[in-house]
Design brief:
Elements (H helix, E strand, L loop, with lengths): L4 H10 L7 E4 L2 H11 L4 E5 L12 E4 L2 H12 L2 E2 L9 E2 L3 E5 L3 E12 L4 E7 L6 H7 L4 E6 L7 H10 L4 H20 L2 E12 L4 E3 L3 E4 L8 H4 L9 H8 L3 E4 L4 E5 L2 H13 L6 E4 L6 H12 L6 E8 L4 H15 L5 E7 L2 H10 L4 E4 L2 H13 L11
Parallel strand pairs: 14-16, 16-17, 17-18
Antiparallel strand pairs: 1-6, 2-3, 2-6, 4-5, 7-8, 7-10, 8-9, 10-11, 10-12, 13-15
Bound molecules: guanosine-5'-diphosphate (GDP) and manganese (II) ion (MN).
Guanosine-5'-diphosphate binds next to strand 2, strand 3, strand 7 and strand 10.
Length: 397
């Protein structure tokens, strides 16, 4: 799950990590009141969306008067933000963070992530912080210092020294960094995070380290033990189709292609997407309806798939190990009738009661294309998409 900057900063503050003072606002009036409450003569207005890259998209502005606070808050609250991190979505700005303006001496980069290769949490840091860290990683990887934390021993002070001196910091800043990294590691493990990023971590005009931006991601499989974090969810920032799917317990990810896939089991879903691609097609989504699915979930899955306008065919691939193919067929028939599917539906069934399942489809009178195996199903789906009038995307390239 993704979080807003202000939520991540609240967590940082509760772990003793220095962040600038700030207040959240939902309207331009609230923004002005927030700025008055903070005091001073300069503020920063920051659009709260689930993505970085806001600065370059007009979502971070330094202002010098209450009129400017109002104007910038008004502009941001009426915009949608698209950055290189929004995955093609234009995210609504429902909140702005009004922060005290900080004078920056230096911008650094610091992050921590679950390092699957090394089976630990790894910190990455760089003196080349600020908005273009991806560029630094691509062209000057030697400027990034990495520190692997032993799971049993936990984070050690010497690792902060490796990081800090590796980044070229002074002894004073390394001492501050040690506290910050130790707290970040505690936050990371306490809250089951999968990613944490401070970009930039700055040295301010008082010569102190401050987390100027904050981004965290949680491991959703652990969210059940963090009701406080689950309560911070902002569905308005999520892909609406993916959010609807999660409400029905379906694992769904939108992709760029036009062949929708409906599969039971994540492994089979991955294999299905591979076989579609091998046959020259492009999947429109990943969808795992679950191992023990039923007719109701098949129907919901059809609705979700059809809410995407790029779908030109639906490939259903069900292996009846736990479920019965005849029940799945009934679900498909009911869904096609109720939802009004107007694209070709290719169905591959295998497993328990497969003959009964196929017979039901054949007898249904609906234009469902039956496939004998996975490869046959993928071929038929690709052919169906190529035959769709007006289709000019993906498959034939
Ligand atoms: P992002 O673009 O979404 O990552 O948003 P950030 O919070 O990282 O802000 C982008 C950039 O705006 C930072 O790298 C800073 O250069 C600048 N910035 C943000 N807040 C302040 C501030 O309080 N004072 C100053 N001087 N610059 C700021
Ligand atoms: Mn940033």
């Amino acid at each position: 799950m993704n979080f807003h900057e202000y939520q991540a900063k609240e967590l940082f503050a509760s772990y003793g990590i220095p962040v600038p003072a700030g207040t959240i606002a939902r309207t331009p009036d609230e923004a002005v009141i927030a700025a008055q409450g903070l005091g001073g003569h300069r503020w920063v207005v920051k659009a709260q969306v689930h993505a970085g890259g806001r600065g370059k998209a007009g979502g971070v502005k330094l202002v010098r008067s209450l009129d400017e606070v109002r104007a910038q808050a008004n502009r941001m609250l009426n915009m949608r933000i698209t950055t290189y991190q929004t995955g093609g979505l234009a995210l609504p700005v429902d909140l702005v963070l009004i922060g005290e303006a900080i004078n920056i001496k230096t911008e650094l980069y610091l992050s921590a992530l679950v390092d699957r290769v090394n089976r630990c949490v790894t910190f990455m840091g760089s003196a080349a912080g600020g908005v273009d860290i991806e560029q630094v990683a691509a062209t000057e990887p030697e400027k990034i210092v990495t520190v692997k934390v032993d799971n049993i021993a936990g984070f050690q002070a010497y690792q902060a020294r490796q990081m800090g001196f590796g980044m070229g910091l002074s002894a004073k800043h390394v001492r501050q960094l040690t506290k910050i990294m130790a707290s970040l590691y505690r936050l990371f493990t306490d809250k089951d995070l999968s990613l944490l990023e401070v970009n930039p971590l700055i040295i301010d005009s008082n010569d102190n380290l401050v987390a100027l931006d904050a981004k965290i991601n949680t491991d959703d499989n652990a969210l059940f033990r963090h009701p406080d974090l689950a309560a911070m969810r902002d569905e308005a920032q999520e892909d609406p189709t993916e959010a609807a799917a999660s409400r029905h317990g379906l694992n769904y990810i939108t992709l760029d292609g036009n062949i929708a896939c409906m599969v039971n089991g994540a492994g089979l879903a991955m294999a299905t997407m591979d076989v579609v691609k091998l046959n020259g097609g492009e999947p429109a989504n990943f969808l795992d309806v679950g191992g023990g699915t039923n007719a109701e979930r098949v129907k919901e899955a059809f609705k979700i798939i059809l809410s995407g306008d790029s779908v030109a065919a639906i490939l259903v691939n069900i292996f009846g190990g736990i479920v019965r193919c005849d029940l799945i067929s009934e679900g498909i028939i009911a869904a096609v009738k109720e939802v009004g599917v107007n694209v070709p539906v290719i169905v591959r069934l295998e497993g328990t009661k497969v003959d009964e399942g196929r017979q039901l489809l054949a007898d249904s009178g609906l234009a469902i294309i039956s496939a004998s195996d996975l490869n046959d199903a993928a071929k038929k789906a690709v052919a169906a998409v190529e035959n769709t009038p007006g289709n000019n995307s993906g498959a034939a390239q």
